[in-house]
Give the backbone structure.
Amino acid sequence: MEMRKTLYRFFGNFEKEEAWLNQMASQGLHCVDYVLCRYKFEQGAPSEYIYRIELMEKDPRSPEGMAYLEFLEEAGIEVVATHVRWVYLRKKAEQGPFDLYSDNASRIKHYRRILRLLLPIGGLNFFFGIGILHNWQPINLLNLGASFLLAIPAWSYYQRIMQLEKESEIRE
């Protein structure tokens, strides 16, 4: 009998989420679906899959996005789920290492893509949050809180970009 398990978790950092998915896989729980903080797992062999998460440049339903996902499938990478522009991927561990970004330049590009997503959302929440100064509403506090919560991962990704750029300069 196949065991299924549903877990609810929120992550503000895709790398921590990815590490958690790989930890679950090492225990034989393999993610088969994701929708807004809800993960569905099926029991399988421990460490059967390696998981990666990517923020795609284009929407997965766009022609470019579908072509990219098709390319990944041809390379033996399974699409577990898509959520907005985020894609959850897995590959059989027996097929070898699974890295989406092989160099600093591609990592920097990915982190910048994430920042371009986070900053406008955080900025809008901050803009509506400072409405507290003119017309206090409870929703303004939520917006302000959301803007500060989004600032944490944004700052973290910005620091990683700076670190990777510094490493790249040293190597040149």
Summary: The first strand starts at residue 4 and ends at 8. The mean pLDDT is 92.
